[in-house]
Each structure stands twice: as C-alpha cells, then as structure tokens.
Amino acid sequence: MTIIPKPPEDTVDLTFDPIHEGWSIYKTRDDVLIKIRQIMLKILLAGVTADGNAQLVLGNNLLFSVTAPPQLKGALNDQPITNEQIIAAIVERNIPFETVKEDWNEYDVQGIKVGVKVIATVLAKTNLFDSSGQPVYYVNYQNVVRAITDPEDKAKFQKIWTERQPTKRTS
C-alpha cells in the first residue's frame, strides 16, 4: 500500500469508520512531552498496482499537545499562531528526542482493516508560547500505512477500483 501526496483526478472516495485513533508521544532531553494525534477525514483509493497493492490518499488533521516542566513555561499568548510564525520563530533545530509511544490508528475501510501511524521525524523548538504558556514546537512528521497482505482484502480493493464510476470535474 502506498500513500500518494496529491490525488489524481480519478479516485474513489472510500467510506470508513475509525476503530481506534491514539497518540504518538515523544520526550525531549529537557523532559518536554509532545503528543501527536491524527484525525482521519478522508480516505481515497487512487488505484491498485499490478501486484494488488492499494494506492491510498489520506486526508487528515493533526492535533498537537505539549506539556513542559514549569521552569520551561512562558508568558500566556492569547493570539493565534500561524505555521509561518512558528517556522520563523525556530531557535533550535533537530532536537534529540525519544519515542515514548507510537500508536497505530485503525480504520474499517469498507470492511478492510487499515492501520495508519503518524510518526515524528524532526522536532524544532521555537521562542513562542501558547495560550497556556506551553512552549511551541515545530514537528515534521510522516504517515506510515500498515501493508495489507491478505489476498481477500487486496481483492476487495481491486473490486472497488474496477467498479468505480468516473469522477466528473467541472471547471
């Protein structure tokens, strides 16, 4: 199974139900806990390879939570912070961290169990603080999809792809 970053024009909007959406948790060297949680909004089938692997496009929102020791907290900030402001405020890049937990999120996608895990790849510290005084971090992440190896599940994706209706786009 592969994740395609930009959906092609011909995709199938799959129905799904979350079975479990958990947190991935990381700890910095100064005991800051950073939690990431993915909320899946859309799963599209963009094709099936010759060997039966589904090509999926994932649409999600991420939630971030930071819990720092009291001595690392700052002034409360009641203003929204944009991604551009976060990137401009980075004061330390590539912070070492340890993985506390990386939880598999599971979805029932039209009778097929699909697992997706969000993992942090890079953490960077900024000089910003949020509305509760917690330090703001920049997090680079990626999604990992658990391979579907069951031939019946591969056949289900193939059937969905074969029976799809062409997507009609208007200008």
- Rg calculated over all Cα atoms: 19 Å
Q: How many individual domains?
A: 1
Question: How many helical stretches?
Answer: 2
Instruction: Please provide the ordered H/E string of secondary-structure elements.
Output: EEEEEEHEEEEEH
Spans with pLDDT under 50 lasting ≥5 residues? none
Biggest beta-sheet profile: 6 strands, mixed
Q: Could you report the average pLDDT, rounded to the nearest whole number?
A: 90
Shape: elongated
What's a concise summary of this model?
This protein has helices spanning 83-88, 151-162, and strands at 2-3, 12-14, 16-20, 23-28, 33-48, 54-67, 90-92, 97-102, 105-109, 112-129, 135-145.
Describe the structure.
The chain is mainly beta and 171 residues long. The protein has one domain (2-162). It is 11% helix and 52% strand. It contains 2 helices and 11 strands, in the order ββββββαβββββα. The chain has helices at 83-88, 151-162; strands at residues 2-3, 12-14, 16-20, 23-28, 33-48, 54-67, 90-92, 97-102, 105-109, 112-129, 135-145. The strands form 2 sheets. Strands 1, 2, 4, 5, 6 and 8 form a 6-stranded mixed beta sheet that branches. Strands 3, 7, 9, 10 and 11 form a 5-stranded antiparallel beta sheet that branches. Strand 10 and strand 11 (135-145) form a beta hairpin. The longest helix has 12 residues, at 151-162. It starts with a strand and ends in a 9-residue tail after the last helix. The model has no long low-confidence stretch (mean pLDDT 90).
